Amino acid sequence: MAKVILLAGGGGHTGYAYALAHYLVNKCDLEIIVPEEDKLSYDRLVKFAPIRKLIKPRGPTTSTGPFVVGLIKSFTKSSSMFKSKCIMISTGSNFCMPPSAIAWLRRSPLINIESSVRFTRSSKSARMLARFSNIIALQWPEQRELFPQGEVFGPMLARPEREPFDGGYVLVTGGTYGHRTLFQTLDETKLENVTLQAGPYYNDEYVKNHPTWRVLDYSAKFYELIAGAEVVVTHFGETIIDAALVYHKPTVIAMNPDWTRTAGLKDATILAEKVNAVLLGELTPDSLLNAVEEARKRKPPKLDSGAARLSQRIIEMAERF
User: Fold this and answer.
1) 3-state secondary structure of 304
2) Helix or strand or coil: residue 283?
3) How many domains does the chain have?
4) Residue 280 to residues 43, 44, 95, 118, 308: CA-CA distances in angstroms?
5) pLDDT tens digits for 155-198?
6) Are residues 315 and 222 in the same domain?
7) Where in 102-260 does DSSP place strands (E)?
8) Sign (positive or negative) of CA dihedral 129, 131, 133, 139
9) Of 65, 154, 240, 313, which is most buried with the most CB atoms under 10 A?
10) Which domain holds residue 312?
11) Of 77, 22, 12, which is closest to residue 45 (Cα–Cα)?
């Protein structure tokens, strides 16, 4: 059986790797690659398989010069890391580009996963890798317009790791990179019983100003926080999928104006309709409170996991290769 290498690109891309790892563990020779200095991805995935690290050339605010330098370093290291044939799985982001290219040069099969939040325009990584991919894994039927040669598997849903329960709190998160505007707006409300995952914006002032809140930076067991939330308020990213479709929690989507390289408002509108979430327009204290109340009235749909279907294909490929 061929080795299966799962590239976890950080943030929501690691979420796709996390979902697949649930179905691949103990069924193939699995290895996971995470970005250097991405402790959260490492902590989430280390229970599934051996992990190696690789530089991620670009973050949300990396300028062109450092990006090019990082890209060269990643290609150089990838060429020495991946010398034998394998099944390579790209979960997206620039992190996956160099190792995927090296795998293609080694004539290894490449599986290319498009983001769950892309509807109107494909992600750069998925688009650039498309011509080299054996499988372009799509998460929604609408993505066939972006990749006619792609195959729809469904959203990459992990197995629930605990039963959902009502912990009586509103979970607010900005994802790996945080959401400055959302947190500032939340700070101006009188909302109580909040669990705030603040990421890089963590500070003690939130605790001092809101003694009923629970505030943390990150958690490798973030699923426990989602499972107990009454409502989840999150940025436009993979947490929407986990909250609404894995743990069936009413969800509010708050676009992050600081992010200009990701999908836009039209994409968010489509995804909100699919998972029956509330999409915030203007971020004000009143609109945030109203959105939380509206979300409480909604129930997310129940969908099958595309990760289960895709993992079966991966295992079959590894057995034949």
Assistant:
1) coil
2) coil
3) 2
4) 31, 29, 30, 18, 32
5) 999 999 999 999 999 999 998 888 999 999 999 999 999 999 99
6) no
7) 110-113, 135-138, 151-152, 169-173, 194-197, 214-216, 229-234, 251-253
8) positive
9) 240
10) 3-156+305-320
11) 22
